[in-house]
Write a structure and sequence with these properties.
By secondary structure, this protein is mostly helical. 82% of the residues lie in helices and 0% in strands.
Length: 76
Amino acid sequence: MSSAENEPPKKSTWVQLANYSQLAFVFPAATVVGWLGGLALDHWLHTTWLYLVGLILGIIAGFVELIRTVTSSDSK
């Protein structure tokens, strides 16, 4: 068997564009959700610093999704 037979079919340009454009929404959404979650915990627990933890966790979640999207599209 040749190596061309073992490779999965390539994604169309439009599908790849859609996959990458989702990052324009996922990254900010993850950041905002983390920030709002931290604000809610601050309000509930009467603290003033948990919003920063939520913000950092949201940013990390956004980067994880960014890396997952890029690596999954490179392998296919």
